[in-house]
Amino acid sequence: MNSIELIILNFNEVRRRSIKVWTSIPHDKLQWKPDNEAMTCLEMIRHVLESEHYYHLAIKNRGSLSVFDSPFENRDFTSVNEELYFAEPFRNQFLDTIKSFTEEDLKNIKIDRSELGYIRDLGDMLLRIAYHESVHTGQLLDYLRTAGIPRIRVWD
User: Fold this and answer.
1) What H or E segment, with its residue span, contains residue 38?
2) Which of 41, 71, 64, 54 is CA-nearest to residue 129?
3) Are 42 and 83 in contact (CB under 8 A)?
């Protein structure tokens, strides 16, 4: 297995586990949040899906976007499945873009996000994108614990 295949495997595995957590949240708890400053469960799921689309465009742009017109804005979805269905074509495009890169691209392409304090190799950036989703999935597991909702086993 080459590096690109491993990165795709990682993205798919992270998403598989995220979906396990996301779809385990009872419908009546999707609007729950631990405090007034936090995102709701559904907002956090939307944030992950929308961020992946942003990151995809930033990778294609080789850096941060000066303007981001999000197709996720002003969508009034009320279920995880609606969010996933809407995000699926964007996810597929993102994975297709990753598959189009070469091993050399992972080292040689730079993603300039210097306004946020970093410039990263493409390979590094792709791993950070998957990590972003993993962190938020962990946050949602903590939300469920705090709300007294049983947590699904993600380590299968």
Assistant:
1) none
2) 54
3) yes
Ramachandran class of 62: left when φ > 0, alpha when ψ lies in -120 to 50, beta otherwise: left
Paired with 63 in beta bridges are 112
Q: 156 pLDDT band (50/70/90 cuts)?
A: confident
Q: How far, in Å, CA of 43 to CA of 50, rounded?
A: 10
* Residue 35 backbone dihedrals phi, psi, to 5 degrees: -160, 175
Rg of the chain, C-alpha, whole Å: 16
The structure's pTM equals 0.95
The string over 52-67, giving b where at least 16 C-beta atoms fall within 10 Å of a residue's C-beta and e elsewhere, is bbbbbbbbeeeebeee
Give strand pairing partners of 27. none
Give the pLDDT of residue 133: 98
Residues 19-29: tens digit of each pLDDT = 999 999 999 99
- Residue 63 vs residues 5, 14, 55, 98, 153: alpha-carbon distances, Å: 23, 24, 9, 15, 36
